[in-house]
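Q: I'm building a small set of examples for a reading group on sequence design. Run inverse folding on the following structure and report the sequence directly after it, with nothing in between.
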């Protein structure tokens, strides 16, 4: 299951325009943004991602159950 978050750039603002143009240079924008978030989380140090993964299995159980139901059809 994927979740989508949009990023809006106000190209009327010179700084956001520069950010937008810089971001266009990355072929895989989504991966680029995720790596920036990862670096931000780590603050240049290792981070225990398990802290942020709590509840992952429970969150995805309904999706897995729905997928297995569809497989039976």
């Amino acid at each position: 299951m994927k979740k989508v978050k949009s990023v809006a750039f106000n190209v009327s603002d010179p700084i956001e325009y520069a950010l937008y143009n810089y971001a266009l240079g990355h072929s895989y924008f989504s991966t680029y943004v995720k790596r920036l978030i990862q670096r931000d989380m780590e603050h240049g140090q290792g981070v225990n991602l398990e802290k942020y993964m709590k509840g992952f299995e429970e969150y995805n159980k309904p999706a897995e159950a729905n997928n297995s139901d569809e497989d039976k059809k």
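The radius of gyration is 18 Å.
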